[in-house]
């Protein structure tokens, strides 16, 4: 049966509510700008949380806009820069599934279509409201006959369309949940990358901290190999709020604790240690999914660097206690997870990389013995894989190889690379 992916626009496909942004543009320099903006935000939230009918909310918001066609052109430029990051990096998914992706929104086609068309979403697959203008190009209203301008509009629209197949709804608001409540869609995914509404989340089939998570759970092609929201980043001890904010913003799953609790040992992927925090070797040796450790201060005598190296854990620390280490250390950790960069690590061969566009990146960490690179390249050749770039650095203990390839990889390649003798860790980055 055909799948259809029904995606909301405001605060889902984009990071913001478009009408809020439009008011910032149309009322620029107006003495009551902040007051009007607050009113519009209140109407938006009331509708999205189910405290006000969508019809009443939309009517009151449009009244306050004071916008024209010129303002809309400026809005489109803003929105194109505000596409949610996980939607933006999965552009290829939309190109491949153009027939299955639909935008269904209580927003307006005048600003939605120019934004989503950049992602190859078809104009006939966009369902939204439309503005009405006077001769001077000023917005004076909207088409009230459009079901999406009415309370329960998304439900009304889908009943009219009478689609068959598996329908999946993705959105942040109450109007999106109503599709699930009506029984018209198979599953409702509450999208929380930009805003989390508790009454929507509690009724969802699945919560999506990112679009990567949706692609992952539905076994669909994605830009990265594993959703970052599934990577557990354990922060221990006195951690500056700036450090937590950097890692949260990057999409990692954060737990802030006073100690390295046993329940996290098996699953932790990143470890950020406050100044002076130590980690016992016994726990460290069992943290087999741990990829990187950051120390807000010196790692000396706090963790066993030789053990970390042997286990393929990249460690970043700041022995000089730089006052900016609360920013510097978490960014180094995130760069390693996102790009494979080990630059300024205190225990690993240093490699600094930019992300390679239109490529897959493979990371191989191994004991420093002769012949590993030849074996890696032999696996590539056996599977007809074209190498775009390759980076190798070693120290006395380990070798660190990053390979960028420009072809779809066979899962047999992954298995073969993991089976190379002396492999410590292997990771498909993206």
From TrEMBL:
Pathway: Amino-acid biosynthesis; L-serine biosynthesis; L-serine from 3-phospho-D-glycerate: step 3/3. Keywords: Amino-acid biosynthesis, Hydrolase, Magnesium, Metal-binding, Serine biosynthesis. It catalyses: (R)-2-hydroxyglutarate + NAD(+) = 2-oxoglutarate + NADH + H(+); O-phospho-L-serine + H2O = L-serine + phosphate; O-phospho-D-serine + H2O = D-serine + phosphate. Its cofactor is Mg(2+). Its EC number is 1.1.1.399, 3.1.3.3. One of its GO terms (biological process) is L-serine biosynthetic process. Residues 361-430 form the ACT domain. It holds the Pfam family 2-Hacid_dh. The keyword NADP does not apply. PANTHER family: PHOSPHOSERINE PHOSPHATASE (PTHR43344). NCBIfam families: HAD-SF-IB. Catalyzes the reversible oxidation of 3-phospho-D-glycerate to 3-phosphonooxypyruvate, the first step of the phosphorylated L-serine biosynthesis pathway. Also catalyzes the reversible oxidation of 2-hydroxyglutarate to 2-oxoglutarate. This is D-3-phosphoglycerate dehydrogenase. It comes from Solitalea canadensis (strain ATCC 29591 / DSM 3403 / JCM 21819 / LMG 8368 / NBRC 15130 / NCIMB 12057 / USAM 9D) (Flexibacter canadensis).
